[in-house]
Amino acid sequence: MVKNVGWIGTGVMGLPMAHHIFPLATNLYLYNRSPEKTQSLVAKGATLLSSPAQVAQQANLIFTMVGFPSDVEEVYFGPEGIFTTLQEGTILVDMTTTKPSLAQKIATEAAKKGCFILDAPVSGGDVGAREARLSIMVGGEKEVFDQLLPYFQKMGRATLQGGAGKGQHTKMCNQIVIAGTMVGVCEALLYGERSGLDGKTLLATIGAGAAGCWTLDNLAPRVLQSDFGPGFMVDHFVKDMQIALEESERMGIALPGLALVEQLYTTLQALGGGKLGTQALILALRKLNSNE
Amino acid sequence: MVKNVGWIGTGVMGLPMAHHIFPLATNLYLYNRSPEKTQSLVAKGATLLSSPAQVAQQANLIFTMVGFPSDVEEVYFGPEGIFTTLQEGTILVDMTTTKPSLAQKIATEAAKKGCFILDAPVSGGDVGAREARLSIMVGGEKEVFDQLLPYFQKMGRATLQGGAGKGQHTKMCNQIVIAGTMVGVCEALLYGERSGLDGKTLLATIGAGAAGCWTLDNLAPRVLQSDFGPGFMVDHFVKDMQIALEESERMGIALPGLALVEQLYTTLQALGGGKLGTQALILALRKLNSNE
């Protein structure tokens, strides 16, 4: 069976992911806003096209992995978007972290055209994408999910969380936990600095018990080395937290911890830290507590 | 050499800890506000006395494991406190989680009397105490720490963090991280409930990645089962967070995340949840987001 696969979005995450699924495609049709970033795939035989609409004319399985919810809107609903040319029976997979409500809107539109969509945001970052160790959180129909499993398995580990939008909701839960662990870890590091503790001894001691977390193991040591490179970029994390807060408000719930952390990261952006890694939160906390 | 050891405080934590060190003592002298709680130690041959002062008359190594900073004040500085009868050369070990500034105050007073003190708060809870798997965070002189190692090894794993008060500061860092992970995990669980996710699938999915933490592994499953028993009691956690906030203020730093979590737990106390486990934070968040 001929597999005409489309891939839209070949950034830091999308490019390695597209390489991983390439072997499953008879033909791979690409679109990216910066066409030069598709080069390594074109060199392998993929076809570069000049709009999402053109991709949707060729492919009956289309992955999208772009940046912000506004980019997803453009790629699906824009004047040269997927929905202008979408063929009946096509399967769409949006792997961008975006609004659960947008995922549902795309699902409704896709159903009208006799198509199927999964929302399938990931966690694991650029390293997870390169090493095919992403955690893929999927919302949509089980039959469609099962069909897509061979593709997901090329990129990491996928789990079906429920119907349309549930993949995005799961990703939001993931980010809400991380917001908490980040503020806890960075405030503890600041307290440790100011009270004269040795950072390495501190981390080794508290990391083994009830304070143990991925953030403490993986990001706190970078703070001790003043390494603030991403990892996961502040601007993207703020986007995710804003989506989670917007969805929470839509559901009528207040999440005061998340709201506070989002504001602290907004401070960090104001300080010019938007392109740093999330562990740079301590820079905002230090600034907040300095008299400079 | 005759080892006359004193133990003050035989509550949920102190009792199993005293049992663990018993074999190292030639004589064990006990004091507890509720004398009946020392029964199992007396049955083994320990001597129950009726004040900390009496203990300090008999013992030249004294452990204290009581409740609140005010209890520590009473046990050391009260009219029947340790300092009224303390013999020169005695080693004091306060294992209560208390104020770093109080630890320093005790150290200053002890030095005046030619005595030594370690502050050595623990983490690991009642289970860690029973199973001798406590993490013991120690502040004080290295020579004294080295002498006490055989005792600490009977209770868990000890690490020297620096001079007087540094054990308490380390414990504060531990609690600050936990405050963050608790609010992140409980807000994520609330978001998950309201957005219709399956709790078990959610935890299994996000626990494996960057959101992974002890709280998610150990306390979130209890929330799913509506098991709000302690574990670690809300009233004690609030005490710890208040100490951390007070010390932060003394050092001239604001920790907005910690302050918020402390306020949320105060809400939980107002709802009658003071004797529940820390995972009951979700009850305060649910209440905050209900129209009852």
Please explain how this structure is put together.
Chain A is an alpha/beta fold. Chain A is 51% helix and 13% strand. Chain A folds into two domains: 160 residues, 3-Layer(aba) Sandwich (Rossmann fold); 120 residues, N-(1-d-carboxylethyl)-l-norvaline Dehydrogenase, domain 2, CATH 1.10.1040.10. Chain A has 14 helices and nine strands. The first copy, chain A, has a six-stranded parallel β-sheet with strand order 3-2-1-4-5-6. In chain A, helix 8 packs across helix 13, helix 8 packs across helix 14 and helix 13 packs across helix 14. The model of chain A has no long low-confidence stretch (mean pLDDT 97). At the A-B interface, strand 9, helix 8, helix 9, helix 10 and helix 12 of A face strand 9, helix 8, helix 9, helix 10 and helix 12 of B.
Quick summary of this structure?
Two copies of one chain form a homodimer. Helix content of chain A is 51%, strand content 13%.
CATH class type of the largest domain in chain A: Alpha Beta
User: Helix segment count of chain A?
Assistant: 14
Oligomer state of the chains in this structure: homodimer
What is the name of the CATH topology of the largest domain in chain A? Answer: Rossmann fold
Number of strands of chain A: 9
Level-2 CATH architecture of the largest domain in chain A: 3-Layer(aba) Sandwich
Instruction: Report the C-alpha radius of gyration of chain A, rounded.
Output: 20 Å
Average pLDDT, all residues of chain A? 97
User: What's the arrangement of strands in the largest beta sheet of chain A?
Assistant: 3-2-1-4-5-6
